[in-house]
Every structure is written in C-alpha cells, then in structure tokens.
Amino acid sequence: MSRTLVLVRHGQSEWNLKNLFTGWKDPGLTDKGVEEAKDAGRRLKAGGFSFDIAFTSELSRAQRTLTLMLEELGQTGLETIRDVALNERDYGDLSGLNKDDAREKWGEEQVHVWRRSYDTPPPGGESLKDTGARVWPYYIHDILPKVLAGGTVLVAAHGNSLRALVMALDGLTGEEIVGQEIATGVPIVYRLNADSTVAEKQVLEG
C-alpha cells in the first residue's frame, strides 16, 4: 500500500519574475520555470515514482508544470483532474500590481499584513484562511480517498493553495504557516498512515 501524496508548486512564472501579485491571473512559465518543472519530473523519476492520478488547478502555470513533469516521468496519459479549488489565493485588488508599487500605495506594513497574515485578506481578495476553506474540503473529499486507497497521487498547484495543504498535513497553526515558504518546482513527498496522519515527509531538493 503506497498511500503517497506528492505536492509540487509550479515553476517560476513570468509574473513571479516581474515581482507582481499574480493570484488568479494566468501568466505562463519563464524558461527557468520550465526547467524547474522538468527537473522536478526528473527527480521524481530518479526516486522511482509512478503516479496513479494527478490533480491540478484551473490555471495554466500549474497545468504546464504538471505536463512537463509527466513528460519526464513517461506518464503523459495519466488521468488528471483540474479544479478551481486548487487555484492560487485570489489577491483581489492587488492582482497584477508590482509589489513595490503596492507598498508605495498602501504602506509597507499594510502590504506585509495582506501577504503574510493568516486571516486578513487584501481588498477584494482571499486570506490564506479563505484559501484553505476551499482547499481543505476538496482535499478531504477528492484527493485523500485516492491516497488512502493505496494510490500514489501527484498535486501540481500554487504557493498558497499548497501552504494550506501543508498546514493541515503538518498540523501547523495559523501563526506557524505564515513563515513557511513553498519553493517552486521542489516535490514534497508525504507517506500517509491508514488513518490519514503523516507517517513520513520528504522534500526532494536538488
């Protein structure tokens, strides 16, 4: 019984590079992001991983990352489920703005609160807690049953949707998750017990 869950944040996007708030906007991957995705696939292949099903968001940067990983794994025909529940946090009025410009407009402290607090959303957007409120039920109802049935499941998503998942899996508080970063293109491997608790966690860094 495998009961393995692998989380991967998409490779660097064009807006990551430009220091813009992205959220539900849909820029593509940079050349570096493409390489990060391929490298993630190569690392998973070297680790002997073969997947039963994959989940990703409705945003193209996560979908492209997944496609590139599956090409490296030789699993291009893998069943894949796309769902808005795994989308990046919605940054609302900040979406598309340069982070430095936002600091000039609203002040360093306010922007820091919007970016890094657990439950304070930016104007018109979602907090990390709001993001979790859509990610956690989807995980419980759609992803977790596949893992507990003995599957090896791949999730390609975003920094904040994955932070919400990591928060639940690692049993972190709102204060603890605030300081956690999810690196682009670095697989995080969880092996679960039959009761859905974490037996083992491994980060496949280069």
Automatic annotation (TrEMBL):
Enzyme Commission number(s): 5.4.2.11
SUPFAM superfamilies hit by this protein: Phosphoglycerate mutase-like (SSF53254)
BP GO annotations: gluconeogenesis; glycolytic process
Keywords: Gluconeogenesis, Glycolysis, Isomerase
Residue numbers binding substrate: 9-16, 22-23, 61, 88-91, 99, 115-116, 159-160
GO MF terms held by the record: phosphoglycerate mutase activity
Listed pathway(s): Carbohydrate degradation; glycolysis; pyruvate from D-glyceraldehyde 3-phosphate: step 3/5
Active site annotation, chain numbering: 10, 88
Catalyzed reactions: (2R)-2-phosphoglycerate = (2R)-3-phosphoglycerate
A Pfam short name: His_Phos_1
Sites annotated Transition state stabilizer: 158
Top-level division of the source organism's lineage: Bacteria
Subunit details: Homodimer.
Family: Belongs to the phosphoglycerate mutase family. BPG-dependent PGAM subfamily.
Described function: Catalyzes the interconversion of 2-phosphoglycerate and 3-phosphoglycerate.
PANTHER family: PHOSPHOGLYCERATE MUTASE
Protein name according to UniProt: 2,3-bisphosphoglycerate-dependent phosphoglycerate mutase
Organism expressing this protein natively: Aurantimonas marianensis
